[in-house]
Amino acid sequence: MSTALALVFFFAPLDADQGFVQKIFYVHVPMGIVALCGFVAGGIFAIMHLRSGDPRWDMRSYVAIHLAIVLAVGVLVTGSIWARASWGHWWVWDEPMLVSFLIVFLLYATYTPLRFSIEDKEKQARYASVFAIVAGAFVPLNFAAVRMAQNFVHPETLGTTTGGMPDKMLLTFFVALVGMTLLFITLWKFEMAAKHARFRLRALRRSLAGEDEFVPIGRSAAPGL
Amino acid sequence: MLPALPLDEAGKYVAGAYLVFFALVLIYVAIMAARLSRIEREVVEIADMVQRDRAGSEQRVGETV
């Protein structure tokens, strides 16, 4: 991420059309791509969960989706700031890319309440996995539909009819994308480790205190192992 | 699309966007740190429980001998 930041501000040239404001692109677009990949990864982990019945896959799916939602909030806010600077409006409803991303975000915003509404942990994991698979399949379809749409108002990033980005910009973008991906993986591993440690501790406490003295936690959206 | 903003005006938007990103990561890490400190407290509690159990069982062994 540090390398990406250095490249963004000291290496990548200023955009001819948008000037300095285009620097938002290097945080907004990688964040969007990684968030969407996180949703798809959540769907793939959910498939593994339904195939194997192993609750650890449900946990992986939950953490990936949870993190992707955090990034999606960032995408919406940074996108809004970029829209204000480029178009003079915080939000534009006739822009397919913006609205489709908002739809994906709102779809996934129901994931945690869905989990929370189901008390039985086994049912919760199964229903959440089904949701994650269906929604995960919707993400690339939705993205492809927007790309195929004719109304290209949103600035094209990687390929345009006028030839695409200069090499320096492209290199900076890919470094930013790699940095964002590594950040996502690091945070995902961090949260997974914390959740595993918590569940192992709970199991240890249960075995030490005995089932009678053990006070179970209330309803939770987080998976149980 | 509007014409390119001058640097002093564009800078505010760029700084805002990057601050949003860093704030999100910082808040996330802070929440995770709070959770980790709770795990640490639980580890201490469990270690105390184990010590109490061990002391109790040693006492019982001493009484029977």
Task: Output the keywords.
heterodimer; A: 225 residues; mainly alpha; elongated; B: 65 residues; rod-shaped
Structural write-up:
The complex is a heterodimer of chains A (225) and B (65). Chain A has one domain (20-156, 170-219). Chain A has helices at residues 2-10, 25-52, 55-87, 96-109, 111-117, 121-148, 167-209. The radius of gyration of chain A is 21 Å and the shape is elongated. Chain A is built from seven helices and no strands. The mean pLDDT of chain A is 84. Chain B has a domain at 18-58. Chain B is 89% helix and 0% strand. The interface between A and B is medium-sized, with 38 and 30 residues.
**Beta strand % of chain A:** under 5%
Our estimate of the beta-strand percent of chain B is under 5%
Taking Cα atoms only, what radius of gyration of chain B do you get, to the nearest Å? 28 Å
Distance between the termini of chain B: 90 Å
Largest sheet of chain B: none
Order of secondary-structure elements of chain B: H
Short structural summary:
The complex is a heterodimer of chains A (225) and B (65). Chain A contains seven helices and no strands.
List the helices and strands and how they pair.
The complex is a heterodimer of chains A (225) and B (65).
Chain A: H1 2-10, H2 25-52, H3 55-87, H4 96-109, H5 111-117, H6 121-148, H7 167-209
Chain B: H1 7-64
